[in-house]
Amino acid sequence: MKQLFIITLILLVSCKQNKEEKPVLETPQQKEIVEESHESIDGVVTLNNGELWQANPETTTGINNMKTRMQTFTETENVAGYAVLKEGLETDFTELFQKCTMKGDAHHQLHNYLFPFIDLFDGLESSNLETCKKSFTGLTIRLEEYSDYFE
Predict the structure, then answer these.
(1) What is the tens place of the pLDDT at every residue in 39-90?
(2) Sequence-separated (6 or more) residues with CB below 8 Å from residue 151
(3) I need a surface site. Which of 8, 12, 44, 49 has the fewest CB within 10 A?
(4) DSSP-derived secondary structure letter, 27
């Protein structure tokens, strides 16, 4: 969890910066600054004055890739299968952040939408099958909610 969280924080910062200016978080103080700058990310997504937010095509493709991965998952009674699923979803998730070109409020709302995925991914790596299933259901619901907020 901690490794994915740090990677996500780096990606959250890097998608706002020039691609050549990747942040390097070397000290706990630097990590705190990054965390504080994203403390408003709470997983609560709002609409754009009642309208959907405009997402860049790469973001929508990334979400669709994750949906496809979830829809084709068949190892629902195998804890190890969920761990493999997690790896694939994290790859899609990381790529989505790397291709992030959104700006402003739409960008902020995308991050609010995506941030809860981190905890749901962790549940897929559980040794408890029921926890895996619960995270799987949560991810399925969250992925379907994308079209409630973004076009």
Answers:
(1) 445 668 999 999 999 999 999 999 999 999 999 999 999 999 999 999 999 9
(2) 52, 53, 54, 55
(3) 49
(4) S
